[in-house]
Amino acid sequence: MPDRMTPGADPTTQASLGDSLAEGWNRDEELPPSDWGRRRSSRRTGTVWLFALFITAMALAHAWLSDSLTSEAFLAWATIFTAISFQALPFLVFGVALSAALTAFVPTSAYERFFPDKANRAVPVAGLSGAVLPGCECASVPIAGSLMRRGVAPGAALTFLLAAPAINPVVMIATAVAFAGQPEMVLGRFGASLLAAVVIGWIWVRFGRADWLRLPVSEHAPGTSKWVIFRDSMVHDMMHAGGYLVVGGLAAASLNVLVPREWLLTVAGMPIVSVLVLALLAILLSICSEADAFVAVSLTDFSPTAKLAFMVIGPMVDLKLIAMQAGMFGWRFAVRFAPLCVVVGLLSTFLIGGLLL
Amino acid sequence: MNRIGQGLTLVLLGAAALTSTIPTDLYLNWVKPAFGPFLIAAGVVMVVLGALVVAAELRGEGDADRDEADAEGARTAATAAPGAPGTTAASGADDATAVAERYGHGDGHGHDHARAPGIAWMLLLPVLAVFVVAPPALGAYTVETSAESAAPPRDSARSGRFDDGLEEAAPGEVVEMDIQAFIMRAWIDEDRTLVGREVELTGFAVPDPDGEGWYLARLQMACCAADAVVNKVLIDDGEIPEEDSWWRVRGTWVEPEGALEDVSQHELEVIAREPVQNPPDPYE
C-alpha cells in the first residue's frame, strides 16, 4: 500500500488561505464607509470564512476520518473518481486557456477569414481543423464555446467540438499503438468520426434553432485590458465546464464500479446488439479519448465494428461530456445534441465498419 | 458563487494537484507517471489564476470608486435594462448588482458574468478526495470484481514484436518481466519461447476465491485508473500470502496442454518469492 497523505503536506493550502485571510482583514479596515460597500465586503469576508471553515473541516477529517475509510468498494470508487478528475484537469486547463486566448487575443476578422461565410462550407473546414488540436474532449468544449462567441456558425463550432477529440494526432497515434498491425482500425476511426462530425454539423446548420443554444456572451466593455478578458473568461469557463466535469466524473466512477463487466461478455457474440452495447459502455464509462483505444483493444470478445463504435461514440457522447455541454450551452441543447450524436455516430460506424472492417 | 469563492476554489484545486504531485507521489495511484508534469503545470496555472482573481477582488476591482466613468456606464446600463448583461465582467456585473440593490430590485438576476453557477461548488469534491480520502491505488478488490483477465488480442502483437527482453537474455538468465508482458507472451507466442525460462514478476497478491492458490496481479493502465485492465498469473505454492501484499516472484511458466487460445489462465511454478516494500508505481 503506497503512502497515504502525510499531514505536513497541507501548507500550500494553509498559506494561501492565510494570505487571503490577512488581505481580507486589511481590506475590511480600509473600506470607505459607504453602505453597499460595507455590505459587499461583509459578503466577501463571509466567503473567506466559509472557505476557512471548509479547510479546517478538511484538516480535521484528514486527521480523524481518513484512517477509518476502509471500505474497499468506496476506496475503489474514490480512486476512479479522482483519477477521472485529475486526468481531465490538465486538458481542461489547457482547453480553457486556449479558448480564453482565442477570445481575448484573436480578432474576429481572423475567424471570418479562416471559416468560409456559408455555414455549410464552414462545417467541413471545422471538421478537418479538428485534426490539428491535440487534446481530449474536455478541452474542446470550452474551445467550441469561444468559437461561437466569436461569431463562428454554431454548426461549424459543433463539428469542431466533435471532431477535435476524435481525430487529432495524439488520439490517432494512441489508436495506432493500441491496434498495432491493424491500420484499418485507425483509418476507420478517422473516417467514421469525421463523417459523423460533419454530418451532425450539417444537420445542425439545416435544422438547428438558435434558441436551443444558450450562447455564452462576451460581456466586456471595449477598451478592457486583454489580460483581464483572458483571466475572466478562463475563470468563467473553468467554473462552468469544471463543475460539470466533476459531476460527469462522479457518474462515470459510480458506473465503473457498479456495473460488472461480466454481463458484457454474454452479449459479445450478437452482431448488432454487441455494437449497441459497446456504444452504451462508451457513454457510461466516459474514458478520455486518448485512452479509449487501449480499452477497446482489451474487449477481445467483441467484433471490430463494435470496438469501432466504442471509439467513435466515446469522444462524441459520454456522461461527463453531456454534463459539460449542458453547463456550457444549457440543457435545452444537451438533450437534443446527445441523441443526435448517438444516432449519427452509430450510422457512421456501421457504414465505415461495413466498408473497411 | 462569488468571485472570491471562485478564486479560492481554484487555489484549493491547484493546491490539491500540486500536493499530489510534488511532496507526495499520490498521483501515481490515479494516473500515468507521464501525467505528473502536466498536473504540476495545471496546478500552478490554477493557483496563480485563483490568486489573481482573489487579489483583484480584494484590491477592489469592480468597486464603483475605482473608475467613475466605468461605473457610470454600468449604472446606466443596469438601470436601463436590469436583466441585461453588465458592460464588463468584473466591474459591470458587480456594479449592476450594487446598483440593483440600491434601486430596490434586490437579488442578482442571473445576468452577470462575475457569479459562477452553483455547480462550481462541485470543484471542491476532488479537493476533498485528495486531502481527506487520499484514494489508494486500485488493488485486490478490483481484481476480484472484474471479469477474468482477457486474452490479449491475438493479431495485435505478432511473433517477433515482443519487447520483453526474453530473446535478448542469455539462456539460463533470469528475465524480469511485466506481468502484462508475461501474459502476452504466454498467450500469443506460438513458439512457446517461455518454456523452461526463469522469469521474475512483481505484483500484489489476490487470494483465489475458489481456494486454489493465489494470483499475482498487476493492473495495467493506459491513461488513468478508470481504464485499468487486470493482468494476473495463478500461483499454487501451498502458502497463500496476505491480500494486497506485494511480492517479487521468480519462477517458470507452467506450459499448458493443448492450444494456447483455449487457455483461460496462466500459471507460474514458483522457485522463490520475496516480499516487496512499497513498489514505486502501482500500475504497469
Count of domain modules of chain B: 2
**Mean pLDDT reading of chain B:** 75
CATH-defined topology of the largest domain in chain B:
OB fold (Dihydrolipoamide Acetyltransferase, E2P)
- Distance from N terminus to C terminus of chain A (CA atoms, Å) equals 44 Å
Q: Please provide the count of β strands of chain A.
A: 0
Helix-strand makeup class of chain B = alpha/beta
- Poorly predicted runs of chain A are 1-35
Concise synopsis of the structure shown:
The complex is a heterodimer of chains A (357) and B (284). Chain A has 357 residues and is mainly α.
What does this structure look like?
- The complex is a heterodimer of chains A (357) and B (284).
- Helix content of chain A is 77%, strand content 0%.
- By secondary structure, chain A is mainly α.
- Chain A contains 16 helices and no strands.
- Chain B is of the alpha/beta class and 284 residues long.
- Chain B is built from 7 helices and 6 strands.
- Chain B has a 5-stranded mixed beta barrel with strand order 2-3-4-6-5.
- In chain B, helix 3 packs across helix 4.
- The interface between A and B is large, with 111 and 110 residues.
Itemize the secondary structure elements and their pairings:
The complex is a heterodimer of chains A (357) and B (284).
Chain A: H1 11-30, H2 35-64, H3 72-105, H4 108-114, H5 119-129, H6 137-149, H7 154-167, H8 169-178, H9 183-207, H10 226-258, H11 262-267, H12 271-285, H13 292-298, H14 304-316, H15 319-329, H16 331-356
Helix pairs in contact in A: 1-2, 3-6, 3-10, 5-7, 5-9, 6-7, 6-15, 7-9, 7-14, 8-13, 9-14, 9-16, 10-15, 12-14, 13-14, 14-16, 15-16
Chain B: H1 3-21, H2 36-59, H3 68-80, H4 90-102, H5 124-133, H6 140-145, E1 175-176, H7 179-188, E2 198-207, E3 214-220, E4 229-235, E5 246-253, E6 267-275
Parallel strand pairs in B: 1-2, 4-6
Antiparallel strand pairs in B: 2-3, 2-5, 3-4, 5-6
